[in-house]
Amino acid sequence: MDKSRVAAFTDAVVAIILTIMVLEFKTPETFNWEGILEEGPYLFAYAVSFIYISVAWYNHHYMFALAPRITKRIFWINNSWLFSMSLVPVSTAWVGEFISERAPEYFYLIIFFIWSITYMWLTSGIIKTASEMGENEVSNRISAMPIYRFLRSIWGYLIYVVVAIAIYFYPPMGIIITLIELLFMAYYTTDDSDQVA
Amino acid sequence: MDKSRVAAFTDAVVAIILTIMVLEFKTPETFNWEGILEEGPYLFAYAVSFIYISVAWYNHHYMFALAPRITKRIFWINNSWLFSMSLVPVSTAWVGEFISERAPEYFYLIIFFIWSITYMWLTSGIIKTASEMGENEVSNRISAMPIYRFLRSIWGYLIYVVVAIAIYFYPPMGIIITLIELLFMAYYTTDDSDQVA
Amino acid sequence: MDKSRVAAFTDAVVAIILTIMVLEFKTPETFNWEGILEEGPYLFAYAVSFIYISVAWYNHHYMFALAPRITKRIFWINNSWLFSMSLVPVSTAWVGEFISERAPEYFYLIIFFIWSITYMWLTSGIIKTASEMGENEVSNRISAMPIYRFLRSIWGYLIYVVVAIAIYFYPPMGIIITLIELLFMAYYTTDDSDQVA
Amino acid sequence: MDKSRVAAFTDAVVAIILTIMVLEFKTPETFNWEGILEEGPYLFAYAVSFIYISVAWYNHHYMFALAPRITKRIFWINNSWLFSMSLVPVSTAWVGEFISERAPEYFYLIIFFIWSITYMWLTSGIIKTASEMGENEVSNRISAMPIYRFLRSIWGYLIYVVVAIAIYFYPPMGIIITLIELLFMAYYTTDDSDQVA
């Protein structure tokens, strides 16, 4: 398929997902500072999800720059990934409203988990296509991505258990640990991660 | 016209149609699981419409990649198609709210029907332009698209009758049969469907 | 400036203006047909505004394809034009809610009028730049656009008077005459209107 | 990174930020002129923010056209800048609702201030990368941008103090002085500001 058109469509969807989260800020009904300070928890949840989607986009950019071909299979996996990510505004809105409650925190974690599955699926789909076309350097470079290696390692799974337990005892830890995890994911990238186009 | 600009404009509209459906998820007013589980029927309707628009986009990508020229006539048919598709969030929201009721299910079916008409119109418009320009290979390839052949066949019309009867006896069958139909449309494509750019 | 980036930014804004009008459809609170039929007047207003913005985009595509250069001046006029067009969803929502009332119909007309001013300003800005650069063929072709010639002719102004009087006696005539005017604008274009890229 | 993809993603986010502000116009519940005239203060706030984001985009276009390379660092600064700008619809909605109150006006000023910080950070990030790559002409041209020189000068900081005092005595002065500042920023640009692509 036309890689740049698929990427442009993906970017439009990601940009809208990112930006409609802003609509969840309710205009305060009063004109004093309390009105805006009530938005604090949602601002925090929004910031975490903004970093989340930025990390996702950054890695998508890398994979698509290297991908030799976008097959019908990759198109559908890519759309599954977009679908799972489109639920992030929902979980963000809920957790921002009830940041100290278990169910919203678990729900945020579940959406994150489903997103990770589709993300790994997308990565391995691109690796597989590259391998089939004999582009071994591409498949090696994508396989070496720290986020991919982390998510499919035992640690990538264990962290869900840790977060799940933490939420049980102190719910806000859900989104806090997720933030820390995202900062690691943003930080650890391959050296060539911004040298592809 | 500038094919890439028309495609980019179309993509932006399609991406927004796809993503504004997320806004229909209401943030639960409670922090227990019941709050989010109430969104279940809408999640199902949203997933079906997401697949629907993905199928539509995939086939649009194919036709536009092959189309030798975007005439004023095709521009307007393309916009009619976008207009009919822009009503999908409306029918999805209604059916997601009342998944077991006849009127919303029939309404979803009607929008699907109108969309099919504009889709067939777009396809035949591109075929006609290609033929007039002597690009017979292009018109043959587009004419051979399974979705186009299905929609204009007797089966393409009969299925509306089947769905209409099914809705009468058990309303949720409307969206369920539509899902099955979409999965077939997603599956059956020509071999070269992802080999154009 | 980078013409394709300015055009892409414009397209994104236009696509969003077009599509957020869909958000004005309220999901019916009942599951019977009355629920959806109440949306009828808004559907009509939305369809008119959809054609309106499609006509606008079509002509913008033509002018930008020919424009030899996007200056800072044209950038700002283009943004004024986008600003005036961004008020169309507001006037459409109001007129769709009260299609038989004078104030919403006059308001729709006023927004249309302001939009026409910015549109003519954009056209003459591009013509002027082309002339200054010695691109007389470009300035002649853009000057010959029927929509531009109509809007700045005596008829282009007289029609506002006609519509204003018609609204006074029978408010829905406002949007009906606008629809007729738009269909003429969509129909009458120069022969080369879709032959630029 | 692929500069055009990063720019296209940025443009999509900026276009959405710009356009979702339209959603804040509430459809009047009455059909008389009072209904729409109540939107006056918000229309003013929206217009100011529209100019604001247009100025931002114009300068972003210039910097990205010159930037020799988009590094991971610039990607993240660019996203911080987008994040700060995504709060503009929130502050605009609040100030448009309570244009004569201190807290909303101060909040608008605070968002403007945070945005300025991320904007200066983005500019200096691009300058630094250009310098490191030996592209001294690029770093000189970007360093010479009037908006950048103003924001980091003593005047750029003093104006916040002036606005803060003005708001204390007459709140609407907050957004009025901001408008004047923006008009200056729109006016004063380098001569080559629209001659890059």
UniProtKB/TrEMBL annotation, chains A, B, C, D:
Catalytic reaction list: K(+)(in) = K(+)(out)
InterPro entries xref list: TMEM175-like (IPR010617)
GO CC list: membrane
Organism listed in the record: Lentilactobacillus kosonis
Membrane topology listed for this record: Multi-pass membrane protein
Subcellular location field: Membrane
Family, as annotated: Belongs to the TMEM175 family.
Keyword match Cell division: no
Name used for this protein in its record: Predicted integral membrane protein
UniProt main location, coarse: membrane
Transmembrane segments: 7-23, 43-60, 81-100, 106-127
GO molecular function per UniProt: potassium channel activity; proton channel activity
Keywords: Ion channel, Ion transport, Membrane, Potassium, Potassium channel, Potassium transport, Transmembrane, Transmembrane helix, Transport
Origin superkingdom: Bacteria
